[in-house]
Amino acid sequence: MVVGSAARGTWVRGDRDLDLFLLFPPGMDRDSLEREGLALARKIALEFGDGYREKYAEHPYINATVDGIDVDLVPCYRVDSASGIKSAVDRTPFHTRYITARIGGLVDDVLLLKRMAQAGGVYGSDQMTEGFAGYLCELLVLHYGSFRAVLEGASGWRPGTVIDLEGHAAKRFEEPLVVVDPVDPNRNVSASVSLSRMMEFVELARAYLEEPSTAFFELRPRPPVGRGEFSARLAARGTALFALRFPTPNLIEDIVVPQLRKSLDGLVSLLGRHEFAVNRADAEMGPDHCLLLFELLVDTLPPIARHQGPPLWNRENAERFREKYALPGAAVGGPFIEDGRYVVEVPRRYCRAGDLLASDAILQVSLGKHVRRALRDRELLTGPDCWSEEFAPFLGAFLDRASPVVRLRRG
Predict the structure, then answer these.
(1) Same domain, yes or no: 164 and 203
(2) What stretches of 33-87 adopt beta strand conformation (E)?
(3) What pTM does this model have?
């Protein structure tokens, strides 16, 4: 069964991918499904394509290139209803049937919405984008009735917006935008949409309604930044830039990217605890390497740090704190009382952010499992040396960060 936008007639020109699902009887056990499904997928890939790659999501599938088209060959169960799914991919054929039966004369509206989302940088439910999937765009058009009506509705969105086409939500969802899956009342189709992407879409909707233009549908590739320009712009910013580059784990993006984001958050917290103020941080997964990037407002601190203790009315803890830091060599200054609390000045462990990021302290924070392993083979880069041709588009976007409408008007 062909699924996705190609099957529903909402395929956007320029897309070069196709999803082919191989449906097997639901009575087949999981091991047999994987064994026989992958064997059939490999046979198809070898007969029609130029080889194949085995990938892993909830279970393995085969990716191949056939006549320039990127084809995913995915084994799944042919269940009778979405309530009987045995794996997440079993739900996809029901999405195709639902949309195909209802999309009617709204295909052009869907294509307009998808292209606007693509041009605005908010299209894609992948972990790196955290944006709007094609299926979500289709459901929004079905719910509101037209492309323009989607924008009118979205212009008033706020966190907690709920859309339930079938009125059958089986639980309360916590994400900022909730679009209940019409074939599965326990699933939020927009769960991947971050609050930032949601509000960027709101900005696009408002700007288009105020001043419609074909510019909202023009794709603009991310321009890479050259080494010289990168160095000059860093100097003009006057901030301190650090990057951790390490080999990309041999796993799909849906597994690696969440671990990158978790690791980025853990390291930003580590820098903050050591009083290195982070202005911005971001992560990128490349085919060969990953990059964790940190822009600091300050990267060098004095050799003493201020440490605040408990209030004196918390007698037991306060006295324990005082006795600990009153010992010879325990503090540079204090303990003294300030605003009812004990305060001490202690030697700072890391006076330079680079020393902290080069230390094994970064392996002690909350990191993704596979990222932690890969970070053991890391390289610490600083300032202009953070540039590489591999990450030039990512670094250019980092420096040029702006909202979709600001980017549109600058362009």
Answers:
(1) yes
(2) 52-56, 60-66, 69-77
(3) 0.84
